[in-house]
Design a protein that fits this description.
The first copy, chain A, has about 240 residues and is α/β, with parallel strands linked by helices. Helices cover about 45% and strands about 15% of the residues of chain A. Chain A is built from ten helices and seven strands. The longest helix of chain A has 17 residues, at about 155-170.
Chain lengths: ~240, ~240
Amino acid sequence: MKLPYVPSSDLLNRSRFCIILVNPENQENIGLVARAMKNTGFSSLRLAGLKGLQPEAFRTAVHSEDLLRKASFFSTLSQAVADLNLVLASTVRQRKAFKVLTIDEAVEKIKAFPAETKIGLVFGNERTGLSDLELRQANFVYFIPQVSRQPSYNLAAAVLVILYTLFRQSTSELIPQSAPPIPRKKQEDCLKIILKKLEKKGFMHETNREHVTNLLYDLFGRLALSERDRRFLLAVFNKGLDRE
Amino acid sequence: MKLPYVPSSDLLNRSRFCIILVNPENQENIGLVARAMKNTGFSSLRLAGLKGLQPEAFRTAVHSEDLLRKASFFSTLSQAVADLNLVLASTVRQRKAFKVLTIDEAVEKIKAFPAETKIGLVFGNERTGLSDLELRQANFVYFIPQVSRQPSYNLAAAVLVILYTLFRQSTSELIPQSAPPIPRKKQEDCLKIILKKLEKKGFMHETNREHVTNLLYDLFGRLALSERDRRFLLAVFNKGLDRE
């Protein structure tokens, strides 16, 4: 079975998204953010309030160092979002001055804007989050659901949750299923061969036939046999039982 | 607005889940796993192949140290899952011997079993993942979607993705929306007061009335005014405009 890797080109057009970190303190978090971006097909990273990156960021950015190398640096969040059309900021705290959306509402907002809209997703400092002044740079503020007030999500975890949510939105129809079960007739033919074998071996007899047949139909029904399963089972019952 | 923190007791009954890490190498990842568990309401952590934890694990387990303190240690995965009813393992690699489910199929499996089913979610070593021998301990193997083969998700990120998915499944109906917009009649009354003000200030006149009215209806319609919005706008137009 081929695993369902999903190429970057997709319905949501992830290339128009920027992930913007404001004053991140922990370089390892920046690397983990880059890795989460790579996992989910986002590629543009902006850093506000930082001038450069340290080796610790590259250490955690496994196979994602290229995203760090082409990251952009800005003195302020205001400069980092200047060319974007739509800015969304995440918060874990109650905000008196701002209406806070759920993450699902935030995703619906994003989907409601035209495909050429350049979008920034903003995340604050690990300890302090985003200030009210910084939130003013956002069109919408949203909340990532969590069980209790403490702890908040780790910075890279918060980025992953929204990116994974967007990634799944953009690709949910594209993820292929594994091979379908064989036609029901073929499933039953296989089952009948097995029943015949069991009969022949004396496992099944007048008093338990109905019961055993029901059990086997139930068991193999739930398996929803694939062609590989069918071959394997027939081999087991043809050779395995005969060898006894 | 109250943020939608969601208590631990829920439809999926998260207390029956164990998160099981097999031979994790990086202690900081273990701490991040504990934090992701705390964020999403899971509390039982098992470690296979480890005898104890180092300070680095506690450093990243912000406000989640209690989960580390009550973690259980096992020599082998087989021992770690012995008392569980249903075991699911995550993989990022193609597996010849095992049918691999999508993450959504894995969640459906979990939901299909009765509420008292004790469930283990197993994650392999950061570099090697789970061996075929280890996968044999699982009832089901599932795949967390990603864009390309490399990089895989960071260990704590993989745990977060499945836990967040389960958390959202269990609570999607429970997350309250913020206050609904005020009744449409009240929205329009507010709008009419503003139109009257603009008329009085000479901003609106015979030639632009229709156009400006349309623009205002569109703008305030999209805002879907809350009671707070309404009060704020009326204050702005009553006092702000009069002060000119």
